[in-house]
Amino acid sequence: MNNKKAKAIAMLGACALLMGALAGCGSSPAERPEAGGSGASSQAAGNAAEGGTGGTEEAEAPKLSGSILLSGSTSMENLANALCEAFREKYPDVNATAEFTGSGAGIEAVLAGTVDIGNSSRNLKEEEKEKGAVENIVAIDGIAVCVDPANTVDDLSREQLADIYTGKITNWSEVGGADAPIVVVGREAGSGTRGAFEELLEIEDACVYANELDSTGAVIAKVASTPGAIGYASLDAIDDSVATVKLEGVEATVDNIKAGSYFLSRPFVMATLGEISEQSELVQAWFDFVLGEEGQKIAADIGLIPVK
Fold first, then answer.
1. Structural domain boundaries of the chain?
2. Where would a tag sit more exposed on the chain, N or C end, judged by fewer CB atoms within 10 A?
3. What is d(CA 30, CA 80) in angstroms, rounded to the nearest whole number?
4. How far does Cα 292 stand from its chain's mean position?
5. pLDDT at res. 138
């Protein structure tokens, strides 16, 4: 009998121990403060790690949004449109657009704060800089002299070109061509191309124009369709509808402009009100792109000379 009682007591003790263990395993974090603390710390660490990773990714690849408006030089139309298209493709939430109102108007607009960037196909004037405009050169352009396709004159000296535009030479026969009147075509007052052309030839305010047109395309079209016409336009805008004229025996090509042997060249400027570092994050990103490898390749692809 004693043996049976001992066995019964042992079994009851074992059951009690088993039930206690099961109760412990089933207890909640609230019933186990020490475990709850450890679990909460692990969860917090996990949340912090997840949040930290997300923050790092965002810092590495900031999402740009908003709009950039450029205005100014019609000679920069090809470049500005190509850059805007590529920038929009890279940053889909950014609306980058350009208007073509002439260099002077573009600089006035950026000084007035109505646009982000003023495109100018000439160097900025001292008075514009004094008002706060900053000259950011993004490419170099050559100015080509063009004539109608039937014209046999294919080379002019600097002096001859200046004399044609100031009215001292009025017939093509005076420069080795046919006996035909010269029709002098150029840009309107305020045009960056006109300003650069006249400045480089040192004939500012002395030109005698038969036609003063308000865009690069209009100049090319007028010269192409007018017998005896001569005009000037951005090198990258010249097409097969006109013939180009050598100057001092040098053709208007990118290589010759790079070499410094072709004298009619000028900068393409994207002016800002204040330094680039003072602009918005979006405008700074624009200049990083334009002056970076991608932007400079675009400039080269359309016939301009990169500056980087």
1. 66-140+267-306, 141-265
2. N
3. 65
4. 10
5. 98
Task: Give the helix ranges, DSSP H, for the chain.
Answer: 2-26, 33-60, 77-90, 103-112, 126-130, 158-165, 192-201, 216-225, 254-259, 281-290, 293-301
Q: Give 296 or 48, the one with higher predicted confidence.
A: 296
pLDDT in tens, 229-275: 999 999 989 999 999 999 999 999 989 998 889 999 999 999 999 99
Per-residue three-class SS string for 47-96: HHHHHHHHHHHHHHCCCCCEEEEEEECCCCHHHHHHHHHHHHHHCCCEEE
Name the CATH architecture for the domain at 141-265. 3-Layer(aba) Sandwich (3.40)
Under the banding of pLDDT at 50, 70 and 90, the label for residue 86 is: very high
Give the Cβ contact number of residue 150 at 10 Å.
10
**Residue 120: its H or E element:** strand 117-120
CATH of 66-140+267-306, one of 1.10.150.20, 3.40.190.10, 3.10.310.30, 1.10.645.10: 3.40.190.10
State the Cα–Cα distance between residues 282 and 272, nearest whole angstrom: 13
User: Is the entire prediction scored with pTM above 0.70?
Assistant: no
> Percentage of the chain surpassing pLDDT 70?
80
On the question of a common fold for 66-140+267-306 and 141-265, the answer reads yes
